[in-house]
Amino acid sequence: xxxxxxxxxxxxxxxxxxxxxxxxxxxxxxxxxxxxxxxxxxxxxxxxxxxxxxxxxxxxxxxxxxxxxxxxxxxxxxxxxxxxxxxxxxxxxxxxxxxxxxxxxxxxxxxxxxxxxxxxxxxxxxxxxxxxxxxxxxxxxxxxxxxxxxxxxxxxxxxxxxxxxxxxxxxxxxxxxxxxxxxxxxxxxxxxxxxxxxxxxxxxxxxxxxxxxxxxxxxxxxxxxxxxxxxxxxxxxxxxxxxxxxxxxxxxxxxxxxxxxxxxxxxxxxxxxxxxxxxxxxxxxxxxxxxxxxxxxxxxxxxxxxxxxxxxxxxxxxxxxxxxxxxxxxxxxxxxxxxxxxxxxxxxxxxxxxxxxxxxxxxxxxxxxxxxxxxxxxxxxxxxxxxxxxxxxxxxxxxxxxxxxxxxxxxxxxxxxxxxxxxxxxxxxxxxxxxxxxxxxxxxxxxxxxxxxxxxxxxxxxxxxxxxxxxxxxxxxxxxxxxxxxxxxxxxxxxxxxxxxxxxxxxxxxxxxxxxxxxxxxxxxxxxxxxxxxxxxxxxxxxxxxxxxxxxxxxxxxxxxxxxxxxxxxxxxxxxxxxxxxxxxxxxxxxxxxxxxxxxxxxxxxxxxxxxxxxxxxxxxxxxxxxxxxxxxxxxxxxxxxxxxxxxxxxxxxxxxxxxxxxxxxxxxxxxxxxxxxxxxxxxxxxxxxxxxxxxxxxxxxxxxxxxxxxxxxxxxxxxxxxxxxxxxxxxxxxxxxxxxxxxxxxxxxxxxxxxxxxxxxxxxxxxxxxxxxxxxxxxxxxx
Length: 784
What we know:
Pathway: Carbohydrate degradation; glycolysis; D-glyceraldehyde 3-phosphate and glycerone phosphate from D-glucose: step 3/4. This protein is of the alpha/beta class.
């Protein structure tokens, strides 16, 4: 199926006369509730009836009270809950034909012909089988007199849409399955806690994480905490790995490391498919090396706890997309899964994804491990390559005589240190000398520059803020001083890590190349700011951590409001003129609205919002949450909004105001920011190494082409380098934001889920079905 422009349909009428049932099946995962909530609310918005199916397929078979009509209010206060509120069960009955007959009969009696299944590949395969034999089941039911011919006719066809909820991230075709990011949050919390105690005692820690057939969690954890070794089922270690492992641990201690961390997926195996266990590794290390060794098996902790901001947004977007896919389905369209690729919602043929997922298992069984990693998708492969490069180290004997300087610019944010660490280590592996510049461009002008070595950046991935120190000042008048220091310290290329100032500063240096030949060196800007306002990248390092901080705070505030009742909170978030944080936090904390600069609002909008809240107070959900981005409007300030709501709400609700402030810049980096920072740091150095070779002429480096100074950004599905100068046209310099911002497309979802009826939903960008299996049988999907 090719991409197609969908005709403009009004989603508010599409569901009239239709019924949708939603169920969660198999193992639970954090974020399933967000998906259930979005499916119910979007379904109701389109005019459809939506039913909960309690206890997964078991509830579908048993029927009765297990299938209940859902209301708008019945999904309130569940966004922040882990697990699944409607229950899940491993169901044997549904695997039998008689079980499926009972399930079909229950659906027909209620007139439900659309089924939304949230679960792992087993659950989704079951759903597809149910759909394929639907007409056969109906015929049997009619023959047995269980349903009338008229009933059979009314429900002649069953539509199915799947969403993948599984913490293992083991489903091919989807970037991230619902629950994966939250599971990583739990694991990283534990790793951080364990590393502090291990450092006190100089211990070796072995940590077993979930993932029976998929090493995703183990691999990303290893990357995010800089583990010394990782065991994953897709890539078993070489023969006599025991010796290699011991050598590596000794080498790490020799470099001054006080602890060793080994991450093991529960499905870890050797080349002969014999399981490798926690105890086996522990005995090896303690007996052979005499190291004080401890092992921890994480178990179900990984499935628990509150969903991360990413999983809530993922679940909400998938739920909305699933309803659209169900209502647009025809008997001819294959059953599909809705999924996320980069930041785009996509629909994929369900059975193709299941097929590729099975192919991975087959490849592992047949010992084709390289294929197994390939089939997992491009990003799994990227993670693996980055991990191998950073962990399997023997810095080269031959030095390159190249000096690369690293500088942090702008406000600090979580994840900057991860990018610095990866850049330093990859640089050293490439044979370069790495230089640390302290305190931003000021430090570059004042000569606060010194070599930075391998051991200095140990443990930096988990540290928040900026260890190098950062300043907001631009090069400005100091350009001459800077160019002199570039010569004095013999700097051959520059990595600038920071926010909008990093981009502006980079542009200033490029513009000054005409005057100062010393500035003709390759440069790369890595976007790192909580505001996510750097042109050339959909995401910046630090935004995910800030988003989680805001979301957790909103959860606490909502909890307080739920107790006092009839209370509306107005919360101000950071972001300058960029409404990313306010919008995304609005989605992940279930806000009633988010005021931002990019979407101008007027007195009539404020009136509508007040009326909306007054109506809301008449329901059982007696609380409101309004977010406002710090520079949303110079006259309608947070104080003004507070005064307005307080006055208009008199007698119906009272108001409170919170300005979140600098806590949004602090905190330990989230797993996403650690991983993203690590990949950006290493990718930038590899790019610079190639650029330096291109620019080497007559015994010196001379780089003055536009493409020798780039922003490294995440665009849709991949990391790309774009010349600083080429991004000028897409930048609003006055308000320090890019002119096109992908996340503005998610604003209607925020409004729909908050029960505004008059939302214009742009359905022209409807996700067309995409194929996962190419002719070669390999996947063309990335995983972040």
